[in-house]
Amino acid sequence: MGERISRDFTWEEMTYSRVAVENGLLNEPPFEVRLIMMELVKRLLQPLRVAYGKPIAITSGYRSPEVNRLVGGVPSSQHVKGEAADCYVPDPKVLLDVLLFSKLPFDQAILYKQKKFLHLSLRVNGENRYQVIINK
Ligand SMILES: [Zn+2]
Predict the structure, then answer these.
(1) Model's pTM, two decimal places?
(2) Which residues make up the environment of ion ligand 1, defined by Cβ < 5 Å?
């Protein structure tokens, strides 16, 4: 899983989970989920990375149903579908501004100010909601 998905994103960072490692779980996305993750990267994360102009660290991409349960995610989480990634940057509000200015497609953007990350999702099949949520 060491290969690149795009210029700046690898399968490793899109599937890494500390909780999975600690619990001896594989956290490997099935083939159909990998296809969706490729679209998430190609249509949203990579163009956003280029527009932002600085590295974006993925702290949580794909989560298997079991990993998602262990981290306390809702069962319907888009992380399980390969549609979401948590993007850690020093200034996540700026990343959100760049996203909104860029007109890139997204389903949900949730800004976590204190934890300094932006949860981003994209629906590959179906309508995107362009929903922005600001959290402390
Ligand atoms: Zn998330």
Answers:
(1) 0.95
(2) 86, 119
pLDDT of 2 reads: 63
- Structural domains present in the chain: 11-135 (3.30.1380.10)
Secondary element (H or E) of residue 135? strand 131-135
Q: How many whole angstroms separate alpha carbon 6 and alpha carbon 68?
A: 25
| Average pLDDT of the segment spanning 97-114 | 97
Tell me the CA–centroid distance for residue 62 and ligand 1, in Å: 9
Helix (H), strand (E) at residue 60: strand 57-60
Over residues 5-23, the pLDDT tens digits come to 999 999 999 999 999 999 9
How confident is residue 112, by pLDDT bands cut at 50, 70 and 90? very high
CA 3 to ligand 1 center in whole angstroms: 23
Distance between Cα 73 and ligand 1 center (Å)? 9
In the block, tokens 């996540």 appear at: 92
Tokens 């989560």 belong to residue:
63
The residue with tokens 């619990």 is 23
